[in-house]
Each structure stands twice: as C-alpha cells, then as structure tokens.
Design goal:
single chain; alpha/beta; Aminopeptidase; six-stranded mixed beta sheet; two-stranded antiparallel ribbon
Length: about 350
C-alpha cells in the first residue's frame, strides 16, 4: 500500500473516483437509539488475535512465489474453515511493476446469517496478507532490496479479522459477513526503481473487484484494515473513504468514540491513500472505508517498509481496540435482538 503523495497522482485518482461516482449506500446510522457502549457482543480475545499475527510471520516472508506464501495461504484457508460456512481460494495472475508475472491467492470466507433471519444486505471486511519484497524505506540502504516480516503491514489486519471470524461464528448476525484476505497488495513499484505506476499496487483487490467470487456481488458496506497493530494507534478520515463511503466512515468513528476509543479514531480529514479499498470502491458495487494507521510526520508508522516491521512492534491492545469497535458496530446494527 502506498500513500499518494504526488499532487498529479492525487488529482488523477480523485478525478477517476468522481467519474465513477461516490454515492454511499444507505447504512444504519449511529443514532441515539443505539447505545453502542452497552451493545452485547461475543468476546474479542486480544491474545488470540496476536497469536494469529505471529503465526503468519512465522511462515517467513509472504511474498509472491515464496514458500512462505504457499504455507501461509494454506494456513489461512484452513483456519477460516473452522469458523466460516464457505472458503474460496481465488488464484489469480498478476504483473508486477517490472513486467514479471506472479501468482496470488485471495482467501475469501463467508459466515452466513443466523438461521431464520429476513434481514437484507451483507457486510464485507478485508485486509491484505502478503508482505513486501523490498524494505525500500529502511534507514539502511543495504536493506532496500530485502524482504521483511510485515507483522504490522499486512499480518495485523488479518489477525484481527481471524479473531473476529471466530467471534462471529459463536453468535451469528442477521446478515452474512464476507472476509477477504487480499494478496499481492504490497508489491508496488519500489522507491529505488525511479518509476511509478499507481496500479502496480493492490493486485488482489483489483482482480477480485473485476472478478468477484460470486456473480453480481453486492455488499451494504465494507471495512478495510491495514497496519492496525502499531504501539501508538491513530486513525483518521482518509479522503477516498470520505468520498465513497462517508456514511459508514462517520458511523464507525462515532461508535469508536462511544466505546472509549475516540483518541485513536480522530475526527481529522487526511489525504487519499492508494489501498485495496480504492479499487473495491472504484470497480465493485461496495462502498468501503480504510482504517489505516496515520502517524503525523512519517509514512504511516515508524517502521513502514523497513526491517523493523516485526512482532516486537505489534501491540495487543491496538488489535483489541479495532476488534471491539467492529464488533460493537456489527452487533449494534445486525445483532439478533436488533
């Protein structure tokens, strides 16, 4: 994932977004009729979420074509089958910035609605699971062409969603929930290549958005998680999220404030970020927001695309905060008693 810094690129992406429309679907509002802080939810186990992050990192680098990619994909699919009704492994080809061909695997899992529910709609949750081939932001230039663990940038969001799936399976919602682990998200043009192509990023979400796992896929809203395990979490209202999915963006920020995480989910508008949610919004029929770390004065977080992005800098409390906010939102709107 890349922070869109160059003004020309920003304007081009925003123009494309405007051309494709930015209408947000109707989502339940965070109204005064629901006290989200008191909504009953299944337990979110931060230790469990952390263990799922660590398990991914233990497979080694999850880069395209690696043994770590193969083993981790098998692990993710196997684990999700424990809690979900269907799991689809979507194999896809991808061309990287330098023309090389690789193969990715999107892991797509669905937890069906509770039996007898007549509610309409569905929810999409996503994160990317690959780790980047190049630590091209490392302070040591000798590391710029080396892979790194990607504990926060990739594995953290997946770990939260795995624990969320375990929780949701114990007390089903009134609507189905789809969870997608996107592959080949973080293999965009490296800094040292002296070249740039916006579409060299987010290959898995580009492919899925054009080739959904079920025909005419349509979700009420989507939430993307990226880099949600930092020691100093700070999430802001990113531009593409505001443009495409302001309803669910404002709702989740309101829920976060209601349950005591207002300092993490700051009511601050920030620049567009080229992430998986951009392609889901632009190419599919689902308005999706991005909950992504935004550290003032640096690119996302201190160890972004460096060798320091390892388990030492993943915080259980940060994972827990995201899990609780999502559970309170989902059960507040789609819980069995609603």
């Amino acid at each position: 994932m890349n922070k869109v810094k160059v003004t020309v690129v920003c304007m081009a992406l925003l123009l494309l977004a405007a051309c494709h429309g930015g209408a947000d679907k109707k989502v339940p509002s965070a109204s005064n009729t629901i006290n989200y802080s008191s909504v009953a939810t299944p337990h979110f186990d931060a230790d469990s979420a952390y263990s799922f992050v660590a398990a991914q990192v233990a497979f080694g680098y999850r880069t395209p074509g690696s043994e770590g990619q193969r083993r981790c994909a098998d692990y993710l699919a196997r684990q999700m089958r424990r809690w979900c009704d269907t799991v689809v492994v979507q194999d896809f080809p991808a061309t990287l910035w330098n023309g090389s061909e690789v193969h990715g695997k999107n892991i797509i899992a669905t937890i069906n609605a509770r039996p007898g529910s007549t509610a309409t709609g569905r929810v999409l949750l996503g994160a990317h699971w690959d780790s980047r081939m190049w630590a091209d932001h490392d302070p040591n230039p000798d590391n710029h062409r080396k892979p790194f663990d990607g504990a926060n940038d990739g594995a953290s969001g997946v770990g939260v969603l795995m624990e969320l799936a375990r929780s949701l399976a114990t007390d089903r919602l009134s609507v189905p929930v789809d969870i997608i682990f996107f592959d080949v998200e973080d293999q965009g043009t490296p800094e040292w290549a002296n070249d740039y192509s916006a579409d060299s990023w987010c290959k898995g979400s580009q492919y899925w958005s054009r080739n959904p796992h079920v025909p005419f896929y349509n979700a009420t809203f989507g939430v993307l998680l990226d880099m949600v395990g930092t020691e100093t979490p700070r999430y802001t209202k990113e531009e593409f999220s505001r443009q495409y999915a302001s309803g669910i963006l404002n709702k989740i920020w309101s829920v976060a404030d209601a349950v005591g995480y207002g300092k993490m989910f700051q009511n601050v508008e920030t620049d567009p970020i080229l992430d998986d949610h951009y392609y889901v919004n632009r190419l599919s029929n689902t308005p999706m927001i991005d909950i992504v770390q935004n550290t003032p004065g640096c690119s996302f977080f201190k160890y972004w695309h460096t060798m320091g992005d390892n388990m030492e800098h993943v915080d259980k409390k940060s994972l827990e905060a995201i899990g609780i906010v999502l559970l309170k939102t989902l059960y507040g709107d789609y819980g069995q008693k609603q």
